[in-house]
Amino acid sequence: MALVVQKYGGSSVAEASRIKRVAQRIVATKKAGNDVVVIVSAMGDTTDELLELAQQVTPLPPGRELDMLLTAGERISMALLAMAIANLGHEARSFTGSQAGVITDSTHGKARIIDVTPGRIQEALQVGQIAIVAGFQGVSQDTKDITTLGRGGSDTTAVALAAALDADVCEIYTDVDGIFTADPRIVPAARQIPRISYDEAMEMAACGAKILHLRCVEYARRFGLPIHVRSSFSSREGTWVVSDPNNEGIEMEQPIISGVAHDRSEAKITVVGVPDKVGEAAAIFRTLADVEINIDMIVQNISAAATGRTDISFTLPSADGTVAVTALKRIQEEIGFEKLLFDDQIGKVSLVGAGMRSHPGVTAKFFGALADAGVNIEMISTSEIRISVIVGQDEVDSAVTAAHRAFDLDVDQVEAVIYGGTGR
Amino acid sequence: MALVVQKYGGSSVAEASRIKRVAQRIVATKKAGNDVVVIVSAMGDTTDELLELAQQVTPLPPGRELDMLLTAGERISMALLAMAIANLGHEARSFTGSQAGVITDSTHGKARIIDVTPGRIQEALQVGQIAIVAGFQGVSQDTKDITTLGRGGSDTTAVALAAALDADVCEIYTDVDGIFTADPRIVPAARQIPRISYDEAMEMAACGAKILHLRCVEYARRFGLPIHVRSSFSSREGTWVVSDPNNEGIEMEQPIISGVAHDRSEAKITVVGVPDKVGEAAAIFRTLADVEINIDMIVQNISAAATGRTDISFTLPSADGTVAVTALKRIQEEIGFEKLLFDDQIGKVSLVGAGMRSHPGVTAKFFGALADAGVNIEMISTSEIRISVIVGQDEVDSAVTAAHRAFDLDVDQVEAVIYGGTGR
């Protein structure tokens, strides 16, 4: 008998009929002889509706009360799901994050899990019940106040509980069949990836792939917990995220590149004419850190000898653009830079693949494909298993399509053996 | 400095603008130098909407999960109210029933409060915060599951917390100015009652007056806690419910009758031709108790000597009619009664007044007034401070109007001294 943790997102439980379908899937898993723990998000647009209500009351809701408000969303969906399971003749019990033992720090709105003590979940499983747990929420260790985990919180709840319960697998249900080699809306020939490593999945998440959140994959990697990303609308195998996708003795042709991710949510700021002195760059990025802005890529031009000045470009979430520009203008005189350029018409395209460690020439092939497609590269950054470029936002689609084809990822180019894995 | 507990019902917080207005009232109470604890119901129709969602999922939701679902309603309203107070520059903290220490038994849907341990509320008050508490909910002592208190639950939360905190007053806010001598929609000359005893308020509640729930008044009487029923739409004094409304040395002409209550929600069942043997009536009412039906009035005719048979009539909530009739039909043969009559076109009209203890002739005057108005009396029941009659449903208005006038309750008949009290 296995212990299966399943997580269903908001769209999977957006209305009563969908909740009933999810209940059937849960009961089927239980009937197959598994213990089942289910993590559920708020129904559909509930969270947005609650945020809208809060905005009607005050433009600046206190974090503690906003968390209290938002956690009503999962409370509704988890109770309804438990009822739907009861209606199928199986016993289910719903638990809040606090009841499930999700202990966090006190940072309202983006609390971090510091401990998981799932005693009540274990008791429920021992008497044969299906446990339904509210995602996204916990209780602070110090103040006993209700907290929320922020973006991707429900996935993180699922992985953290699965790890604490020593589950055999954490299934993340979504509205697509798993992780794809590229966004199928851009590349119709994109294919679903049967198995991928934690490292690759983290790079994909960090580069804009929306299926799995970085934080949840990080957590799973730390505990060596297999994640199975699959569709709540079909029973097909999805994508397995594991430590070593090729450790099962099955000979398969490993692709060099696992996938092409893209992200249109960033903007680029260029600080023009920075005096080329020690500490100037540090001052710029300390200023940005002080206003809590996460920088992604950074490029510094070689200093022009004639002027003793350089340009520094970096990318950041577009939404933080105004705050960043305001903060930098405040230190313009002190630093002595000439001006700021702001461009939110950019996009990031990233190649991710553990295979590139052992395959030189990936960069050349990638850049060649982009050149052939007439795409101009504005910035470059690389990690051991990733190459990212910044391009014009209207060139993102061409860049993704060109890279996907260049690395033989299109469905019609792939050998059948790629699909040969048994899943797990 | 006084400790004031305020309770706001669902219509007082039905939308963001009303929540903001309630917040202003709370802040005004705080600014006047009081410690303030607020109990709040779910917004407007939220509870009905959640029940509708549950019905879409299953016709028979388990009680534990229904309670989990419904308690999301107060969670939303209390967080929004705390935000609205914060927006006015005052510190507020919202607390669930569980966090506020409302400990109940495990009877989901109609749990009884068995203890109140408001440590977190007291801590909040000590540091100058306004405490906002979810009404209607608690946590079971045995299972630590979330429970709801059933009808009138928020009023009961308010009175129970006020008693545990040794509050100076429990203010129940509603959409009218207090308790009236009759329903102003029927008797335009009805007037607001400035002060009323617990006993009278309980009889009024039991007889269909909808302002205060019986259970909440019972609780307040046990602890000698003054209740002030008032409108959330005005700052006028409302109705004070106290142990002795006349104990302040103010000479006032005490009316014999405090008010006329009515109730159209009952039905009457007559069991015709019951053999007049020992134990037959007991068997009938045990059968009804077994299916959890609350009987109100009972009348048994004198047995007709010729037949050795009698008729037994009783009233019960109309909604329970089908269940009662079905249960009685099952024992028809065993008991040997002839037939059942069911009538839901009835209404109950009740005179309530502590003064009737010392005023003989109230019954005669009441019945005379009804006779003059052409109203036929079907059943009668009395207590020390109440006389109730069952009449045809279409005669309820005439009966209430006639009784109200007969006992000099109409506004234009009342001496000004009636209004002379200072409230408290």
UniProtKB/TrEMBL annotation, chains A, B:
Keyword set, alphabetical order: Amino-acid biosynthesis, ATP-binding, Diaminopimelate biosynthesis, Kinase, Lysine biosynthesis, Nucleotide-binding, Transferase
Domain ACT: 269-354
Record InterPro entries: AceGlu_kinase-like_sf, ACT-like_dom_sf, ACT_Aspartokinase, ACT_dom, AKii-LysC-BS, Asp/Glu/Uridylate_kinase, Asp_kin_monofn, Asp_kinase
Top-level taxon of the source organism: Bacteria
Pfam name, any one: ACT_9
Family: Belongs to the aspartokinase family.
Native source species: Sphaerisporangium corydalis
Protein name per its UniProtKB record: Aspartokinase
EC annotation from Swiss-Prot or TrEMBL: 2.7.2.4
Reactions mediated catalytically: L-aspartate + ATP = 4-phospho-L-aspartate + ADP
Class of this enzyme: transferase
A single MF term (Gene Ontology): aspartate kinase activity
Metabolic or biological pathway, per its Swiss-Prot or TrEMBL entry: Amino-acid biosynthesis; L-threonine biosynthesis; L-threonine from L-aspartate: step 1/5; Amino-acid biosynthesis; L-lysine biosynthesis via DAP pathway; (S)-tetrahydrodipicolinate from L-aspartate: step 1/4; Amino-acid biosynthesis; L-methionine biosynthesis via de novo pathway; L-homoserine from L-aspartate: step 1/3
Function field: Catalyzes the phosphorylation of the beta-carboxyl group of aspartic acid with ATP to yield 4-phospho-L-aspartate, which is involved in the branched biosynthetic pathway leading to the biosynthesis of amino acids lysine, threonine, isoleucine and methionine.
